[in-house]
User: Which sequence fits this backbone?
């Protein structure tokens, strides 16, 4: 399902939804029955988003059997900014069978990842954990790593 023309790796990552009403994003979440839907909300020009997009592009081939990635520019698609409190430069959220899957990262914010992960394997581990939990019907999963001390070291 191609929604736009920009993507880090065209064949693996589904590019940014550019619908002014956000219906394309909703349809992407609704249409996927078996795989986890990963949405990166942010700006394509933002440095934090670019770092996260590099990781997303690098892992897309590895996770394509159980997850699909969408990039959504929050200026082009502002519909979700208030609903999901998208105030950070980069926000990654997970959905499974039209349900938002929360993840306890130890940060106090279980709704989203709001920083750029730099380690590809770390992100793959998070995606696998979210997918396994979502398949079991869990709406909240515990991250494989505690990020409460991510700025201390």
Assistant:
């Amino acid at each position: 399902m191609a929604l736009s023309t920009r993507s880090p790796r065209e064949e693996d990552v589904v590019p940014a939804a550019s619908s002014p009403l956000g219906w394309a994003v909703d349809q992407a979440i609704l249409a996927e029955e078996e795989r986890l839907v990963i949405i990166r909300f942010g700006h394509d020009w933002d440095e934090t988003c670019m770092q996260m997009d590099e990781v997303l592009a690098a892992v897309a081939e590895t996770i394509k059997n159980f997850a699909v990635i969408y990039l959504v520019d929050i200026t082009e698609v502002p519909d979700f900014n208030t609903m999901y409190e998208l105030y950070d430069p980069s926000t990654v959220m997970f959905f499974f069978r039209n349900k938002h899957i929360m993840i306890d990262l130890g940060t106090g914010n279980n709704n989203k990842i709001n920083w750029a992960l730099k380690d590809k394997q770390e992100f793959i581990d998070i995606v696998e954990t979210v997918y396994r939990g979502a398949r079991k019907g869990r709406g909240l999963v515990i991250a494989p790593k505690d990020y409460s001390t991510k700025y201390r070291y």
In short: Residues 1-12, 14-20 have pLDDT under 50 and may be disordered. The first helix runs from residue 23 to 31. The first strand starts at residue 14 and ends at 17.
